[in-house]
Amino acid sequence: MHNLIFDQLSQRAQEQGERIAIRVDDREMTFAQADTLHKKIASFLIELGTMKGERIGLVGPKSEAFVCTQFGTLRAGACYVPIDKTFPIERTFQIVEDCQIRTVFADPANIERILAAEEKPACLKNVVAWSDEGEYANDNVAIHRFSSVERYSDNPSPAHRPVDTDLAYIMYTSGSTGKPKGVMLSNRNILTYVEWCLAELGLGPDDIMVNVAPFTFDISGMEIFGMAASGAQIILIENQTRITTVLDAAQRHKATFMATVPTVIGTMVNNPRVFGRYDLSSLRTIISGAAVCPPVFMKSLHEHLPNATLYNLYGPTEATIYCLYHRIDNADSIEVDKPLPIGIPFENTEAYVVTADGKEAPRGEEGELILRGSHIALGYFGNEEKTTSAFKNFPLQPHLNETVYYTGDVARQDESGVFHFLGRNDDMVKSRGYRIELNEIDLALSMLVEDLESFAVIAIPDELIENKLVAVVVRKSESEIGEKEIKAACKERLPAYMVPDVVEFRDALPQTSSGKINKKALVQELSR
């Protein structure tokens, strides 16, 4: 029975083995090749002593090997953990320790950083080099060449086969205490998501999908899982920040499908030469998600590509990539002076707006958005406190003893049943599609205790990137630290997307009557 996502990859290989599954630059991999390689990786991991449910770290650039390792990890009954290749080594090790990762697959640059570190996580025992480049040796960590995987069986032991409720992958998001949270997603979560992709988006073997999102960004699963479930081809774009690279690939390969973030769409529509330079008429489906998209962007995009169907999608990582959708069939339906709706729930998902006392809010009234169904994650890895605060018993039918996810998002449901996103009820913001807890940036700034007297990090609304991160700081009288040095210090401890966009220097910060820094006043001042 072909019921898990790696089974579906094997089924595609049987049906269309010689068709291209993955393109990276000038390289191609067929479905048959991907199926064989991912099975060999599974056998390798099993013979390495990998246990069911064990976490496997993946760090490096996008590649066919990366994708096949994801599927191979799942077939081995384990769970993969993507780690951003640009993370400071301290943050990489934090994730390795948090998940007790014993085996990491990595590219040469990250292997060198891992091996060069004086103190490595005690749990780390194996490093697998995706490339044959470089010479490595270490007394405490075993080094394996990815090329050696070829000698393993393409018929891995079925004893390690997972069931659909088993953990599939852990995706890390920003944490409010300065520690990133690992969201646990199951094989069933993946299946629920791809069922919607097939039914609503109509993905099939004739589709060509441009993968824009990094593999450490959960929305990349749309193309990776969609490829296995539908037989569509994926084009991996490593330098997704360069819009010309993305559009060049879309035009050259006659892409039919692209999922991206509002920043990319804004760059496209704000550059009038784009649609004259590139022939994007093959695109039949374009998805915007991961952040609030200005309606004027979508209206302009639809006017340029009238034959494409546009989607505005909503979904936190805790609900498996996306879970609500709003389909836009024509530009006339878009009201540029009103936010785009986030739409209606996917199949096997229900959404509710609840009041502070756990009652369902009447239509038209705002409250917290909660989600239930087989989209919902298993919780946060190794963090029971965070899990119990966000995953709670279903308040509308408590007798079910069923866990639902409290999103922390404020929303309302209109009279027609459509949901509208209104904002956050905590200190988490989104910028460039990334979820960011401002407290994490505060923690990085707190390391500059010798130079900074006080500081505050705020988010200023920005039409293109949704929120601009501003660090407002007060230097100590003897300090001459500048914006460049502050950003550099943050970059040592944080991913690049969390480094403040702007540093404002002040003689003092406004305070509330209780003596706290008045962030609201700063936001109002800097938003003018």
Helix content: 25-40%
Strand content: 25-35%
Span of the ends, CA to CA: 60 Å
Question: What is the total domain count?
Answer: 4
Can you describe what's shown?
The model has no long low-confidence stretch (mean pLDDT 92). A hairpin with a 7-residue loop joins strand 8 and strand 9. The strands form 6 sheets. The chain has a 9-stranded mixed beta sheet with strand order 2-1-11-10-12-13-14-15-16, sandwiched between helices. Helix content is 29%, strand content 27%. The protein is an alpha/beta fold and 528 residues long. Helix 1 packs across helix 7, helix 2 packs across helix 3 and helix 6 (187-201) crosses helix 7. The relative contact order is 0.09. The longest helix is centred in the N-terminal third of the chain and has 17 residues, at 31-47. It has 4 domains: 5-185, 3-Layer(aba) Sandwich (Rossmann fold), CATH 3.40.50; 239-345, 3-Layer(aba) Sandwich (Rossmann fold); 349-424, Luciferase, domain 3; 431-526, GMP Synthetase, Chain A, domain 3, CATH 3.30.300. It is globular and about 65 Å long. The chain contains 15 helices and 27 strands.
Summarize the structure.
By secondary structure, the protein is α/β, with parallel strands linked by helices.
Set down the secondary structure blueprint.
Blueprint: H1 5-16, E1 20-24, E2 27-30, H2 31-47, E3 55-59, H3 64-75, E4 79-82, H4 89-99, E5 103-106, H5 108-116, E6 126-129, E7 142-145, E8 167-173, E9 181-186, H6 187-201, E10 208-211, H7 221-230, E11 233-236, H8 243-252, E12 257-260, H9 262-269, H10 274-277, E13 285-288, H11 295-304, E14 309-314, E15 324-328, E16 344-345, E17 349-354, E18 366-373, E19 379-380, H12 384-390, E20 391-393, E21 403-413, E22 419-424, E23 428-431, E24 434-437, H13 438-446, E25 452-462, E26 466-475, H14 483-493, E27 502-505, H15 519-526
Parallel strand pairs: 1-11, 3-4, 3-5, 5-6, 6-7, 10-11, 10-12, 12-13, 13-14, 26-27
Antiparallel strand pairs: 1-2, 8-9, 9-19, 14-15, 15-16, 17-18, 18-21, 20-21, 21-22, 23-24, 25-26
Helix pairs in contact: 1-2, 1-7, 2-3, 6-7, 9-11
